[in-house]
Amino acid sequence: MAYLKVSGTKIVDQNNKEVILRGAGLGGWLNMENFISGYPGCEFQIRAALAEVVGKDKSEFFFDKFLEYFFQDADAAFFKSLGLNCIRIPFNYRHFEDDMNPRVLKPEGFKHLDRVITLCANHGIYTILDLHTAPGGQNTDWHADAGTHIANFWNHKDFQDRTVWLWEELAKHYVGNTWIAGYNPLNEPTDPYHTRVIDFYDRVYSTIRKVDPHHALFLDGNTFASDFSHFGDAHKRWENCAYSIHDYSVYGFPAAPEPYVSGEDQRRRMRRSYERKREWMDARGLCVWNGEWGPVYARREYDGQRTEAINEERYRVLRDQLDIYNKDRLSWSIWTYKDIGYQGMVYVNRETPYMTLFRDFLAQKQRLAIDAWGADDSQVRHIYQPLIDLITKEVPSEYQNLYPFPVWKLESRVGRLARNILVSEFFVKPWAEHFRGKSVEELDVIARSFSFENCLHRDGLNKILTDNASLVAE
Ligand SMILES: O[C@@H]1[C@@H](O)[C@H](O[C@@H]2CO[C@@H](O[C@@H]3CO[C@@H](O)[C@H](O)[C@H]3O)[C@H](O)[C@H]2O)OC[C@H]1O
């Protein structure tokens, strides 16, 4: 087998035959995320807190088991059975490099990544390696695992140097693997100047190319993979590259402006938002990959009788998005494969040891809206509204829209900082306390909650994905 490569607007195989990559992201695995696995704050915080409560060895054991159970052969077999052919694998740089020991590769970092790439390959599934978390944090959100909203990656050259170094090491390791469809060097950059991201891509491109001339690169646009407007002629310096948008539709979230009925205006707005993200590529005949998209879903325990109706609406959004993508023969990767029940194609059963251990805690997190993703802040809005009012009243309007505006409006900025960073920090230790006194065997059982056999399937979502995976002939 030979490498996939980018040819004009298409991804092709060795016979120049078009390959449309359709699949999902393995979110919350090698880069754990709060709403995906149920903890508050960031991964580095909960890892430290758990080590304090159960000790370093037991804590490492738990996380290693979590990684093992989260994706196994049964997951790959199921994924393939849906007709999907590609998994985007987000990972955290901390698996490969310790902040206290920079530029020293941790060989153990490859253990699970190699394992899952091989599992996928055995089932004929391509993988795309996505550096979701870079030193210093390349974006302003929780998934950059920096614990702050300042994306310091852009302010310190050394963070960038270390990331270039890491990609060189990764490319050396994976250069011969043809089941890897390509490298996605940086998830969702948010560079307020819009120029440093291009300089960084120049550097990472030439460093990877020195050791690996084969694999395609999938480059995210700035501002959460939505904005290529400052990229100019940069593509002329980069070969074998696809450009990645993240196409979350506002209609797929609780904050939608109105119920989604698939009306003409709504579909136009959905399409327009997608087209805007890919304008730069379309003007130049470049290849587009939709690296993240997809609605979130209602849960009976929180949304009660409205659950089915809300989810039908979300499936409508999903179908209409796929309609657009099919017409464009777009490659896509829906977010996300597995979680605890908000967005995943499969999700951990509520009766498992992990979910019963955290039942009350998760309900509290939900009530306080301390995860930002799709947050429903209706029960705590009155607490934060005075802060929004104060800024609105005291700060001249021309200074109210701080970057990453317009993705972050004033309300979402206050929510992100006050709830998702500040309040959630106070719940990190209480999360870890749930594990106090647990034996190694008990930790194993809790981690096993994430295995395929302990998961339920979101059949409505999976059916729509399968139907559409076969709609566009390769
Ligand atoms: O790890 C993922 C993460 O990659 C993803 O990040 C969010 C992507 O969406 C951003 O906002 C959207 C930007 O485009 C507009 O059109 C949408 O309406 C917005 O929702 C958001 O700020 C990022 O954090 O999200 C899920 C994580 O699990």
Would you write up a description of this structure?
With 474 residues, the chain is of the alpha/beta class. The protein has a single domain, classed as TIM Barrel (Alpha-Beta Barrel), CATH 3.20.20. It has 18 helices and 13 strands. The strands form 3 sheets. Strands 3-4-5-6-7-8-9-10 form an 8-stranded parallel barrel. A 3-stranded mixed sheet has the order 11-12-13. The longest helix is centred in the middle third of the chain and has 21 residues. The chain starts with a strand and ends in a 5-residue tail after the last helix. The mean pLDDT is 97. Ligand LLPRFTAL binds next to loops. Belongs to the glycosyl hydrolase 5 (cellulase A) family. Keywords: Glycosidase, Hydrolase. It holds the Pfam family Cellulase.
**Order of the strands making up the biggest sheet:** 3-4-5-6-7-8-9-10
CATH class: Alpha Beta
CATH architecture: Alpha-Beta Barrel
- Termini, distance in Å? 17 Å
Using the coordinates shown, work out and report the CATH topology. TIM Barrel
Tell me the count of domains: 1
Unreliable stretches covering 5 or more consecutive residues? none
Q: Which structural class best describes the helix and strand composition?
A: alpha/beta
Radius of gyration: 21 Å
Overall form = globular
Biggest beta sheet attributes = 8 strands, parallel, barrel
Portion in beta strands: 5-15%
Distinct small-molecule ligands in the complex: the ligand O[C@@H]1[C@@H](O)[C@H](O[C@@H]2CO[C@@H](O[C@@H]3CO[C@@H](O)[C@H](O)[C@H]3O)[C@H](O)[C@H]2O)OC[C@H]1O
**CATH superfamily label:** Glycosidases
The number of helical elements comes to 18
* Number of strand elements: 13
**Residue share in helix:** 40-55%
Q: Would you tell me the overall average pLDDT? A: 97
